[in-house]
What we know:
Chain A: This is SsuA/THI5-like domain-containing protein. The complex is a heterodimer of chains A (612) and B (318). With 612 residues, chain A is α/β, with parallel strands linked by helices.
Amino acid sequence: xxxxxxxxxxxxxxxxxxxxxxxxxxxxxxxxxxxxxxxxxxxxxxxxxxxxxxxxxxxxxxxxxxxxxxxxxxxxxxxxxxxxxxxxxxxxxxxxxxxxxxxxxxxxxxxxxxxxxxxxxxxxxxxxxxxxxxxxxxxxxxxxxxxxxxxxxxxxxxxxxxxxxxxxxxxxxxxxxxxxxxxxxxxxxxxxxxxxxxxxxxxxxxxxxxxxxxxxxxxxxxxxxxxxxxxxxxxxxxxxxxxxxxxxxxxxxxxxxxxxxxxxxxxxxxxxxxxxxxxxxxxxxxxxxxxxxxxxxxxxxxxxxxxxxxxxxxxxxxxxxxxxxxxxxxxxxxxxxxxxxxxxxxxxxxxxxxxxxxxxxxxxxxxxxxxxxxxxxxxxxxxxxxxxxxxxxxxxxxxxxxxxxxxxxxxxxxxxxxxxxxxxxxxxxxxxxxxxxxxxxxxxxxxxxxxxxxxxxxxxxxxxxxxxxxxxxxxxxxxxxxxxxxxxxxxxxxxxxxxxxxxxxxxxxxxxxxxxxxxxxxxxxxxxxxxxxxxxxxxxxxxxxxxxxxxxxxxxxxxxxxxxxxxxxxxxxxxxxxxxxxxxxxxxxxxxxxxxxxxxxxxxxxxxxxxx
Amino acid sequence: xxxxxxxxxxxxxxxxxxxxxxxxxxxxxxxxxxxxxxxxxxxxxxxxxxxxxxxxxxxxxxxxxxxxxxxxxxxxxxxxxxxxxxxxxxxxxxxxxxxxxxxxxxxxxxxxxxxxxxxxxxxxxxxxxxxxxxxxxxxxxxxxxxxxxxxxxxxxxxxxxxxxxxxxxxxxxxxxxxxxxxxxxxxxxxxxxxxxxxxxxxxxxxxxxxxxxxxxxxxxxxxxxxxxxxxxxxxxxxxxxxxxxxxxxxxxxxxxxxxxxxxxxxxxxxxxxxxxxxxxxxxxxxxxxxxxxxxxxxxxxxxxxxxxxxxxxxxxxx
Lengths: 612, 318
């Protein structure tokens, strides 16, 4: 949600001229920076940003300065929490030794990677993942239905996005899901995350902008709600709707803390206490938040915490406790201790540290923030020890979550709920979906399932309708409804009705449909409805085979997967690419399996103890 | 690739896979079992018809793969109602008791039973969507509610349910013979068992679709694409609403086309060893001809009454 009104207020002025055509490197924005040792004096300066995940830091610290009775106070830490929404300033303080900590998203660290990662002393060690975002969105105009539409018929969509903030990563992931890059769209960079110089206002005032990356309050302002479309009334934009949200693309924005390598080596115990204290605080904060959400009765402890957030972030950012401050926390998926293990230790996690690091460096180098890849290190903690320090029971997250698909059958909203889709073809007679041939698509499906943790991956089989149409003609002839004349290659058909016999042309469509619906073609040996049902069954069986092939592939590769996200569906002949194929080539276009990432209520996904 | 090969590919690539890819859990069958009084009569080979039907059912249900859903619906309610075996995954331990308690007594209300059985299948299809859905009628005579059969049959077929009929020891063809997917006559317990087995455990008719050897694309060439698309939409819009309760199909809504059997052609089922049904019999016969609807019967009776009254009036005058 309020990822910050201040993000890059200073930075942005330096950071990127609005609508810059060429990307300025991060090192040009900061200018040359000397690396200085971290100040030895206490308190230790720790930056925070405007995000729900940081409420747990305040909770653990008892405020901006460590209170003796707080979690951090009891563990012997002495911290001073300082505003870090100006990320460029954060980097300067980090390099200059004012603070050993960096607070941002993995992509933000990636954008600064060349600056902070070149000198071994300042090479970041990522020590904590606070959360996944569930409060960032891309809102588009009516004509864009899915992420695939961001580039349609060669036309590039124009997308407003804050430069240098968390939405750059959101946009990168959204484009990647449709196999697009920043070259396939036109990105219009704006200075601020929200407010008059934010992307939402740009979208509102400039009709040439097709989409914008926004936080929750702006999304509601433009559309009326995550599942609504703007009407044009009350400040909404007519037809504006959510194209993709981190509620579904739930493993896109990872909020993290990193520390300088030299300081980490010298103060490992302090870093462990910092991480353990945060995790302990987060458990409490999540419980307070969820209790209020469930009962709508606010405990004094939660009220104090929200009031503290309001004081720290400012009343202009959080005008009310019940809606704005609570909403800020709702937009944040705390990942807790099992989340640390999943993120840092599970090699098969396609949204884990290695995967996110690689994507962050891809973004940095491809979008021009850096010219070389300078990586970060993971903490290498012993999480049994961290669990003990945090007084949390140690538990490892599952690698494979079992479960049936989440949807009964897609209803009419299926198209409306599709975020992005891609298709694989198959040959007639094909029963196996081998890794050799479909490995890339399987990788993409697994990556989609991981990034879109709050969505279903619908595997939708399609059949070719040729056989059914032939059965329809044969049944018609068998029952005397249709008459055929002419020779092979030049047949003509006539529809017999009480009004006489008419050549089967467009004028007969209505009569033909009526006859089909009345069952007139049924009851003979050639049953079009039976053939259609058989095609439906076959398409479902194919989708099941593909799901099984992906599950086997994931197992073999050691990749994490939540099987309850994979939903095989048969579409049969209901949605052909070519309704009446004239050749095998056209018939083959219909023989396909489509993958659709579809919005679902995340609660319908298989119960897992862990929220990531 | 030559056209014949292409056509063969299409068929092979599509339909021949069905039997291999569809598991038993895709099979859903309701057997409508005639337990009317006439089923107590003997068969040529000894034993009563109902006993033959019972043992055939037991054997077939015993062979039914796990996961298949089979129900048995009786024309005349027994102690547990009309559902001798509710439509559900086959529970072999319960079947034996249920079937052994079966008695034959009562009439032949086939039309009403067809609706009940079809509605149960449609409800199941609404929740499952995939699979094969079949109605199997095992009977030795004509329906006592022929008007309902007339009314419901096209509606059931318009919903894409497959109807098979097995005549037990019937002298003549059943009136449904020419208007359902298959008709077989079983004159002895063994052939009855074979017939039930073929329907319950056999492949769907679609998987038996044999290609005429002509190119499917050529066959379709002159059909306009938009008409094809509209036809596909009509086919795929198959409803699961209860029979006789919607405006989708049925007698009231039939388009202006020859209303019934006069123009219909007998099936040529792909079941060697089963006699192809004879053309429909009009009038006469033990079975009374299914074409005589309730409405027509009322008119005929009214005419007879008028004629008789006229005769008695004339007689009195004399």
